[in-house]
Amino acid sequence: MDMVDESTPRPPWLTDEDLAAYTTLYEHSGFESALQVPYRRKHKELGISNPKVEVPVLLIIGGKDYFLKFPGIEDYLKIEKMREFMTDLEVVDLAEGTHFMQEQYPAQLNHLLFNFLTKHNI
Fold first, then answer.
1. Strand, helix or coil at 61?
2. What mean pLDDT value characterizes the chain?
3. Are 102 and 109 in contact (CB under 8 A)?
4. Using one digit for the tens of pLDDT, what is the confidence trace for 88-97?
5. Quick one: 31 exposed, middle or buried, by C-beta within 10 A (0-12, 13-18, 19+)?
6. Predicted model pTM
7. Of these four, 29, 34, 83, 90, which has the most CB atoms within 10 Å of its CB?
């Protein structure tokens, strides 16, 4: 995690109780379990021959998400490579958002989700 500056203060929306809950969960499951979920595996391992998503997709990106610092991710998003796999993709960028936008901006995310679902009659 050399991408994280340890001197950065914890955000106000991440309470001591939240941090304790996450810590407990990771102590029981280990960090690697989060990396083993199926959507992170190679398509060959899952037997997926056509990885296209043919339903409307909403991607909400936090501009301050550490995920964007992984090599190639920001470029991948900028060139809209994902549209090859998701033709009906709507991308919303929350400039101040982090990886935990649901805790940071719950009302705004609910609004975005509600509008998306309503727009697509879902």
1. strand
2. 81
3. yes
4. 999 999 999 9
5. exposed
6. 0.65
7. 90
